[in-house]
């Protein structure tokens, strides 16, 4: 990739730096709006976590992490998918600019929390990819939801898209390591490596089910 011989101080030293900054304004405003949408969804998840803890004396979440996609990743994805490169097109076509990953203790908790969240009357469920019921061929498991959620700005209500990924600790363990293995080397993997990773995913998934069954037995559900 060509290195840009260009630094922020170069913009500041230009005759009219405000013109460049003005051009970037719509992009920065949209990023701020995605940040607000993340805050809304995180608050909703935290409320459910508090209530769950009060009702059942345990927290269903191990962790919640959120991120806004990096500007360069946004541009690369738009180019890869052949979308027009504009702020409007970004908002229209990309649904994972704001993303939240929720790590749950048990598989049942994923569906319980996902259904409580999507049942809230200000949330519209745009898309569901259930890679737990239908794992990817490589063994990847997670529940992905695309939500449409309103944020309230001084100018009024605005609908934003947020991607929420739900996983158990076990699913996250596999996905994190697989990501590291996969992205470290930019090469096609041999059939043997693909099969090994898939086998690991299946072993981990079987363990997840057993832990759920043990919990069900202790709670007298099975
Ligand atoms: P992209 O958003 O362009 O990736 O395409 P998509 O919307 O069809 O993808 P999908 O919803 O299936 O997956 C989106 C996200 O899920 C990725 O950015 C990853 O965070 C995660 N993911 C999906 N598949 C895998 C996988 O095989 N391994 C790992 N480690 N993560 C995955
Ligand atoms: Mg996606």
UniProtKB/TrEMBL annotation:
The keyword Cytoplasm does not apply. GO terms for molecular function: kinase activity. Keywords: Kinase, Transferase. Gene3D superfamilies: Beta Polymerase, domain 2 (3.30.460.10), Nucleotidyltransferase (1.10.287.860). GO terms for biological process: guanosine tetraphosphate biosynthetic process. Residues 66-189 form the RelA/SpoT domain. Pathway: Purine metabolism; ppGpp biosynthesis; ppGpp from GTP: step 1/2. InterPro entries: GTP_Pyrophosphokinase, NT_sf, RelA_SpoT. PANTHER family: GTP PYROPHOSPHOKINASE YJBM, GTP PYROPHOSPHOKINASE YWAC. This is Putative GTP pyrophosphokinase. The lineage of its organism: Bacteria, Bacillati, Bacillota, Clostridia, Lachnospirales.
């Amino acid at each position: 990739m060509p290195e840009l011989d260009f630094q922020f101080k170069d913009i500041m030293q230009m005759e009219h730096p405000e013109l460049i900054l003005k051009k970037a304004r719509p992009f920065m405003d949209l990023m701020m709006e995605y940040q607000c949408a993340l805050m809304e969804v995180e608050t909703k998840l935290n409320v459910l976590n508090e209530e769950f803890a009060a009702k059942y004396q345990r927290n269903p979440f191990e962790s919640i992490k959120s991120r806004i996609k990096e500007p360069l990743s946004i541009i690369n994805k738009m180019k890869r998918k052949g979308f027009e490169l504009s702020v409007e097109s970004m908002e229209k076509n990309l649904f994972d600019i704001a993303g939240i990953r929720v790590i749950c203790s048990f598989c049942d908790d994923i569906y319980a929390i996902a259904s409580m969240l999507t049942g809230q009357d200000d949330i519209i469920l745009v898309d569901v990819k259930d890679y737990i019921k239908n794992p990817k061929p490589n063994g990847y498991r997670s529940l992905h939801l695309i939500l449409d959620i309103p944020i309230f700005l001084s100018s009024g209500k605005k609908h934003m898209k947020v991607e929420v990924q739900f996983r158990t600790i076990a699913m996250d363990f596999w996905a994190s390591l697989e990501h590291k293995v996969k992205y470290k080397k930019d090469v096609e993997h041999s059939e043997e490596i693909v099969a090994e990773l898939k086998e690991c995913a299946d072993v981990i998934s079987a363990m997840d089910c057993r832990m759920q069954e043990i919990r069900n037995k202790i709670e007298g559900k099975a």
